[in-house]
Amino acid sequence: MDVIIHRIRLHDGVDPARFEAWVRDVDYATCPRLPSVRAFAVQRVSTERDAPFHYFEIISVSTLDAFSRDMKSEAFQGLVAAFDTMASVVEEMSGERVEPGYAAQP
To answer: Residue 35: is the preceding peptide bond cis (ω within 30°)?
Structure first.
């Protein structure tokens, strides 16, 4: 499994509440339409205007190649169009997980 991390900075004047509502109502809701996406979450870092970035997102994908194919889909392109009106990715990192990783059992 591959992981992609984006640091995100809101454009000047964009209300964090608006961005977060879009993340919850649109971004998360679109994930099931992207077969390569295994997990996705956005974390708030700061809502201070001058912060170097305001959020980061972690996208776990089956493979980077599969995610590249999903990025060409109409669903993904709709996300990009909306996202670009509110924010920018200021840094991207990706890598392959050293398996198996750890997750606590419920």
So the answer is: no
